[in-house]
Design a protein that fits this description.
single chain, 471 residues, alpha/beta, Rossmann fold, Helicase, Ruva Protein, domain 3, five-stranded parallel beta sheet, 48% helix, 12% strand, disordered C terminus
């Protein structure tokens, strides 16, 4: 129930408005002595003020001035006689939201009041929403105390004080968009739009229209002119998620928009100036994409003015307990459940898991556990199997390959050793036998068996070297 304060020196008018507006569900307070209105406004709340322009002791214009300076959140409707229309216009210039002429239509007044109070509610909701977003996405509320996250917080804070383009890299699920929102909400552009678009989610022709807009008739289905995201985000921030997935043609147009600060709608000829800050994000290696000819080098340098990487969850394990408690509280509140406790072994399981989906995967796991677990304490049995199951060891390669023959294998090994030993012995068979730890006769047998005998000349020379007659 909104509070309406009415100031007038006519008691009959105050009584009439009080009865009518109370029937509409408003709380109504009347003030017959205009000089007391300041005291009332200091002590009590008011959602709307209705005030006559002509009052004894103090004028309605003075009351309006006081409200605009001290309670600018209160909308003011002025009451005036037909002959004081000029004063009513002056009141509008001074900050009144509307005026009504005596004698007035009560139904018309009710419509004006309802309309203005609805606008006030929307303004308050907008303020609360922005405050909620600022708290939700500001880096102070991004969960994590690890060194890696502290570095991220510092870079977010530094980035927010400039209008420079920012490139955020990192694996999927690490919180790149949350970081982008934090930069926006801490920047001077925070009161303007934050517009996000996933470049990987749209085909090339549709992505171009979404980014730059189109004119009527430019393609089938273009039944009217449409603004693109660059225009929608004017004075604010445009977040290009998965920018590495854009086509070369789209990259050219984005590069031109960054360089010229102008865009051209699809099918249009007019150059439209844009004032927008770009924050881009990708989970791809853009330098490798450049080498592969899939990403323009000049666009990379345009985006890479300020850059930082969101660390994967596996590299910030000390943050897992904080994240778990945060998500537990969030989803217990959302689902209207009593805050759940964790069994002592839960955190060790969670810290031992690799989290390929990063923070997003952890959040999904906790949401699932809260949704399906009826017990007050969450145990390992509540977690998905892949988290609590020990990692599977790779199966060893079989020692014996298919179609293996041991005799043939041993023969090949023996041939290799005999050949190598003969080289080391310079062809002298007695030295070869000694190196192999076998008898001369056994060596001669193996050489014959494997067909390893050398040329006759070489063999005879070796035999002469072996025989040395006594002098």
């Amino acid at each position: 129930m909104e509070n309406i304060l009415i100031v007038d020196d006519e008691k009959s008018l105050l009584d009439l408005l009080s009865v009518v507006l109370k029937k509409e569900g408003y709380r109504v307070k009347t003030c017959l002595a205009p000089s007391k209105v300041f005291e009332i406004l200091e002590k009590e709340s008011a959602d709307l003020l209705i005030c006559d322009i002509k009052l004894p002791e103090i004028s309605g214009m003075e009351i309006l001035k006081y409200v605009r300076e001290n309670r600018p959140d209160i909308p003011v409707i002025m009451i005036t006689a037909y002959g004081s229309l000029k004063q009513a216009v002056e009141a509008l210039k001074a900050g009144a939201i509307d005026y009504i002429l005596k004698p007035f239509d009560v139904e018309e007044l009710k419509i004006i009041i309802a309309h203005e109070l609805e606008k006030r509610r929307l303004r308050e909701e907008n303020i609360l929403l922005k405050r909620d977003l600022r708290e939700r996405y500001s880096f102070e509320n991004m969960i994590g105390k690890s060194k890696a996250m502290q570095e991220v917080y510092g870079l977010i804070e530094k980035s927010s004080s400039t209008d420079s383009t920012v490139l955020i890299t990192g694996e999927s699920g690490t919180g790149k968009e949350m970081a982008a929102r934090a930069i926006h909400l801490l920047s001077r552009r925070s009161e303007r739009p934050f517009v996000s678009i996933n470049c990987a989610a749209l085909p090339e022709n549709l992505l171009e229209s979404e980014l730059f807009g189109h004119v009527k008739g430019s393609f089938t289905g273009a039944v009217a002119d449409k603004k693109g995201m660059f225009e929608v985000a004017t004075k604010g921030t445009l977040f290009l998620d998965e920018v590495g997935e854009t086509s070369p043609w789209t990259q050219v147009k984005v590069l031109r928009a960054l360089q010229e600060r102008k865009i051209r709608r699809v099918g249009g000829t007019e150059e439209i100036p844009v004032d927008v800050r770009i924050i881009a994000a990708t989970n791809l290696d853009l330098k490798r994409r450049i080498e592969e000819g899939k990403f323009r080098e000049e666009l990379f340098y345009r985006l890479n003015v300020i850059s930082f990487e969101m660390p994967p969850l596996r590299k910030r394990g000390e943050d897992i307990p904080l994240l778990v408690q945060h998500f537990l509280q969030k989803y217990c509140q959302q689902m209207g459940k009593k805050m759940k406790r964790l069994s002592p072994d839960i955190i060790s399981y969670l810290e031992g898991y690799a989290w390929p989906g990063n923070v997003r995967e952890l959040e999904n796991v906790i949401e699932r556990v809260v949704a399906i677990e009826d017990r007050e304490t969450i145990t390992a049995a509540s977690l998905p199997r892949e988290i609590v199951a020990p990692p599977r060891k790779a199966m060893p390669q079989p020692l014996v390959p298919p179609n293996f023959n041991l005799a043939d294998h041993l023969d090949e090994v023996a041939k290799g050793y005999i050949t190598e030993a003969r080289v080391l012995a310079g062809g002298n068979l007695r030295k070869t036998a000694s190196l192999l730890g076998i008898s001369y006769r056994s060596l001669r047998h193996l050489i014959s068996k494997y067909g390893l005998r050398g040329s006759e000349k070489t063999q005879k020379e070796a035999e002469r070297q072996e025989y040395k007659p006594a002098l």
